[in-house]
Amino acid sequence: MVAYTPLLVVFPLLGFLVLGLFGSRMKNEKLIGILGSGVVGASFFLASAMFIHMLGSEPEQRSYVVPVFTWLSAFTGTPGSFTANIAYQIDQLSILMTLVVTGVGFLIHVYSIGYMHGDRGFWRFFSYMDLFIFAMLNLVLADNFLLMFLGWEGVGLCSYLLIGFWYEKKFTGDAAKKAFIVNRIGDFGFILGMLLIFTTFGSLNFGSVFSGASMLAVGNTTVLWITLLLFVGAMGKSAQIPLYVWLPDAMAGPTPVSALIHAATMVTAGVYMVARCSILYALAPVTLEVVAIIGVVTAVFAATIGLVQNDIKKVLAYSTISQLGYMFLAMGVAAFGAGIFHLMTHAFFKALLFLGSGAVIHAMHDEQDIQKMGGLKEYLPVTYKTFLIGAIAIAGIPPFAGFFSKDEILWNAFSSEHGSWILWLLGVFGAAMTAFYMFRLVTLTFEGEKRFDHHRIHPHEAPKTMTVPLIILAVLSVVGGFVGIPHASVIEHWLDPVFTPAQYKLLAEEHAGGLLEYLLMAVSVAIATAGIYLARWVYLQRSEITVSLAKRYPRLYRTLANNYYVDEIYDAAIVDPIVKSSDEILWKVIDVAFIDGAVNGSAKLIANIGQSLRRLQSGVAQSYAVVFVGGIFFVITWLLLK
Amino acid sequence: MVPLQAYLILSAIMFIIGALGVVARRNAIIVFMSIELMLNAVNVSLVAFSAFFGDATGQALVFFVMTVAAAEAAVGLAIVIALFRRKQTVNLDEINILKW
Fold first, then answer.
1. pLDDT more than 90, % of chain A
2. Fewer CB within 10 A of the terminal residue: chain B, N end or C end?
3. Which residues are paired to A73 by β-bridges?
4. How far is A642 from chain B (nearest CA, A)?
5. Which of A508, A530, A561 lies at the terminal end of a domain, its last residue?
6. What's the half-sphere exposure (Cβ side, CA atoms, 13 Å) at A454?
């Protein structure tokens, strides 16, 4: 079993290479689709086999490292040595992430066969998606920071390639650039964090770093800086304030991309990284607070924006940012297992919601404005039912998956030593808004009266290759939560060994909640249900309320609708000054005047010297003879005088 | 006996006159005459040394020099004729094609 581990990563890489090199010549879409999805399916199959093997083995044997080959090795044997290998760490956390990535990834690949049908770049799409899976698997399976960073950058690259897939439109190119550049800003923090880790611990290998860390004391300032810098990287990758601005624009890419990259996998890389480095974060309570606060603020902030968006994918994008905020809230109150649990359930229902929206967009011939939809449930029954399941799950209604994971987070936010009731309250507020805007979306899209010209547009249900993944994800959204029943949580028990060193440092205990826990649970469910009914009532029966509210508070409405003008603020405060100073100073002064001046100037100098030397050649033979004779006399005089 | 220095001074004066002629005269024929004058100055010097030291090598070399001078004069005059056919002049100031 151990020997097959590298195959997990090699399968998608093969898919990328074969499709990338030969895809343009393959005419058969089915073949490309089967190859592209099949490699991911093969990885999923292998990961499941490894998982089952792990289930049957002792907890101590579940964590092991599989080295593949030596990547970089310098100065071995001396104190300043640096080694980074291609080696994969298989443990409870990484196998769980691998299953999520390959499982949900496989479903999305199959869905894409139907969604991207007829697209000119069909083969290119699948090769990029396979490359993405390759990079993501490297990220979650890496056993050292450098390999993880390789995967980190790789998914950023694939995000750029896939967002900008339809590169003919200028906006998609801009959105792809924005995603990559904002990610890069986060990566700057990540790199600084890695450098600091190396100078502190002498290695980038997880094993060495974490065992070194467990000997340090809580409150160590170096670790504080390390964790803060790594978190900057997570902020960029996982779209937290202030680096979330790329995610809404990223909706310009094809819907399967939004589902895979911007809902289920890439954006969860930051959460995974924090979970993996849990021991480091346990040593820095200040950072934990920062993480929790940013997480909950992002959750609420993004939810408020999602309330007024009219593009079906933008609502889901802000919803993703908001849910990622919940995951970081969990990490920030040291409920690492709960955060990963929510990551898993979120992957299920968010991918479901995005794929469902893709089916809607497909049916409405690329219309994405929900104000032009309505009453679609009679045309798209399967899509409607699965989308509804996803919405109920994300709203946190039991017994669906979202309830268990979100509630675990909220309870830990309330009861943990690192949490507080304020965090809980904000979390519940966010959950209420989540329920409201999700059901606003469902109601405006599928129910009520048709606001589109149904004589000209005939929506039809999606083909099987699209609906079957929807159904599978819907089933997972229903039953996925049962692995995390409070106080009997299979998933947290599974993940415990990974987080034990961190919990030990934090002296954390599981809180027996008793009545209070169930009371709070009931409160959050009640609020979520109220949100759902409110949304349905407003949008089905009293939609004029929204219009009158928008009229009474026009400025508030416009601020929310333009997402707090954050993009405009960034443009004015950061982008424009940089562009202007680049133009005025870097280009006009340094490049043109200094560098071009120096280069052209030296060329001119040589030209001038040449000009003056050229006058020696007059063409008149006698002047040459003069020089000749003069030279002779000079030499004779010199010899005589010597 | 005429001292050796007298011959050498004569040779030097002839050489200088020849050099000045090459440098300062406009007519190509005159320039060739000056070149011949320079060669003959060298001949005088060679013969004087040969007589003074009793070594015949100098005189043998004079034969070589005269032969070469004759050949060179022939070639040079051929060039002048070719040049005259082109430019209808032997004024060296006007032959300045090989210039910048």
1. 29
2. N
3. A83
4. 20
5. A561
6. 11
pTM for this entry: 0.80
For residue B73, tell me if it sits in a domain.
yes
Digit-coded pLDDT (tens) for A415-427: 877 778 888 889 8
* Alpha-carbon gap: B78 to the closest alpha carbon of chain A (Å): 17
Q: Taking CA atoms, what residue in B is nearest to A623?
A: B23
Give the residue carrying structure tokens 């020849």. B18
pLDDT tens digits along A576-612: 888 888 888 888 888 888 888 889 999 999 999 999 8
What is the residue type of A536?
A: R
pLDDT band at A139 (very low <50, low <70, confident <90, very high): very high
Interval A620-626 mean pLDDT: 82
pLDDT of residue A105: 92
Least CB–CB distance from A620: residue in B19, B31, B93: B93
B24 contacts in chain A (CB < 8 Å): 622
Write out chain A residues lying below 8 Å of B98, CB-based: 617, 619
Q: What radius of gyration do chain B's Cα atoms show?
A: 17
The answer to whether the CB atoms of B100 and A621 lie below 8 A apart is no
Mark out chain B residues that contact chain A at CB-CB < 8 A: 19, 22-24, 31, 92-93, 95-100
For residue A333, give the 3-state DSSP assignment.
coil
B19 vs A contacts (CB less than 8 Å): 629, 632
Between CA A34 and CA A221 the distance in angstroms is 51
Residues A249, A298 share a domain: yes
Kindly report the number of other CB atoms within 10 A of residue A461's CB atom: 16
The CB-side HSE value for A389 (13 A sphere, CA atoms) comes to 26
* SS3 call for A168: coil
Is-contact A247 A321, C-beta < 8 A? Answer: yes
Predicted pLDDT of residue A509 = 61
Identify the pLDDT of residue A639.
94
Q: Which residues share a beta bridge with A70?
A: A85
| ipTM value | 0.75
What is the total count of domains within chain B? 1
Check if the beta carbon of residue A497 is closer than 8 Å to that of residue A92. yes
Structure tokens at B66: 């005269």
A589 and A445 within one domain: no
CB contact under 8 A, A622 and B97: no
